[in-house]
Amino acid sequence: MKYLGLGYYNRRAVEALGPDGLAAVMQQCEPHMAVIAALPQLELHAGLAERTRQILRTGKVVKVIDGPYAEAKELVGAVLLIEAGSFDEAVRIAQLHPTTQVSAGEALGWRMEVHPVHFLNGASLPTEEGQASKAA
Known about the structure:
Blueprint: E1 2-10, H1 11-37, E2 42-47, E3 52-58, E4 61-67, E5 74-83, H2 87-94, H3 98-101, E6 111-116, E7 119-120, E8 123-124, H4 128-135
Antiparallel strand pairs: 1-5, 1-6, 2-5, 3-4, 7-8
């Protein structure tokens, strides 16, 4: 089964840290990133730039809006795609990411969410929830 991990950060806290402070924190991340990158269950680990564009439909018009947005306190900074036998295993793997391993991350609002993926590249995927309902 596949799971998506989303790592968040507090934009204002990171900006307040400054470039040198952020570089020092990111250096602390390197050993943890090496550990998680070596796991066979990790299919993708991407760090995202702050620049973003939002695409949304309003009525009959599709709009593209540049970001990040001043009102956005949190931004997604990392994405993981994990192949795991269970949700609990995916969470254990995601916990190895620097968002939860580097102590400075707490002040920077770092956190990780893990979501079961039920659809990928045009195909439905098995989930624990789907397997449980079939077994019942």
